[in-house]
Amino acid sequence: MTNVKETVGRKAADYVQSGMVVGLGTGSTAYWFVDEIGRRIKSGELTDIKGVPTSKQTEDQARKLGIPLVTLDEINQIDVLADGADETTTDFNGIKGGGGALLHEKIVAQNSRKIIWIVGENKVVDYLGKFPLPVEVIQFGSWKLFKNFDRAGMNPSFRKSGRDSLFITDSGNYIIDLHLDHIQNPQQLAFELKNMVGVVDHGLFLNYPDVILVGQEDGEILIHER
Ligand SMILES: O=C[C@H](O)[C@H](O)[C@H](O)COP(=O)(O)O
User: Fold this and answer.
1) Which of 19, 32, 67, 115 has the fewest beta carbons under 10 Å from its own?
2) Domain 133-202 maps to which CATH number in 3.30.70.260, 3.10.250.10, 3.40.50.720, 3.30.300.30?
3) What is the distance, to the nearest Å, from the Cα of residue 164 to the centroid of all Cα atoms in its chain?
4) CA gap 203, 201 in Å, rounded
5) What is the value of ipTM here, to two decimals?
6) Could you tell me the distance, in angstroms and rounded to a whole number, from the CA of residue 86 to the centre of ligand 1?
């Protein structure tokens, strides 16, 4: 059976050339991209690569693979970033943050010249919102925010880590997932969320990717490119 995530993740490495600064995404699909970058460095196919990880998890993986790493502040720009998504439309909007890495992913993405999303065909949707929208909030006053979301009918839930503790992001924040089912106006919602005090960022990535690689169950890869 084809491993769609592996196929599409490894394929994204074709966009990387020697000498590039590479954004390393987070999640079970980006895992294979990072793995492939490590493999190509080891085999000598790629040289002089610098990686910028989007999470501690990816940083650990990259270190184990011997991928040289730099911080965002040490470089001017990232040449190519490959990252997964939880939902994507074919007009380049999506939801990210299912793994809780949305804030660092968004910062890295905003500093990347070319963004490639790597997804299985099950992630491609006509409209956003079936996947719960993650909102990263600072801990202080987060219960108040939660109640505001609840009053607004946005069906919030605090992201858990295990049974009793709340999930904490790499920046020390909580995540509130909004179960919206169908986001009618993503731009408006993104604007409103960004304007709420205590919200650090949200998982709406509107107009982000330049290329979406969609892995099909039959092993083929569909390419959506601007
Ligand atoms: O926070 C996690 C990231 O946004 C991931 O890229 C996203 O959740 C997709 O992950 P996966 O490839 O594991 O479905």
Assistant:
1) 19
2) 3.30.70.260
3) 26
4) 7
5) 0.97
6) 6
C-alpha 132 to ligand 1 mean position (Å): 13
Q: What is the pLDDT of residue 123?
A: 98
Predicted TM-score of the model (pTM): 0.96
- 27: annotated binding-site residue? yes
- pLDDT, residue 124, reads 98
Class of domain 4-126+206-218: alpha beta
Q: Distance of CA 90 to CAs 12, 23, 200, 208, 215, Å?
A: 17, 22, 27, 11, 13
From the candidates 59, 87, 105, 136, which is the catalytic residue? Answer: 105
Domain boundaries, the chain: 4-126+206-218, 133-202
Q: DSSP label at 121?
A: G
- What is the arrangement of strands in the sheet containing 112-120, beginning at the earlier edge strand? 50-53, 21-24, 78-83, 112-120, 211-215, 221-225
pLDDT tens digits along 127-138: 999 999 999 999
Distance separating alpha carbons of residues 25 and 84, to the nearest angstrom: 7
Conformational region of residue 219, where left means phi above 0, alpha means psi within -120 to 50, and beta covers everything else: left
Whether residue 83 is annotated as binding a ligand: the answer is yes
85 is in an annotated binding site: yes
Specify the residue with its C-alpha closest to ligand 1, atom 10: 27
Mutational test site, ligand 1, from 6, 26, 88, max ligand atoms within 8 Å of CB? 26
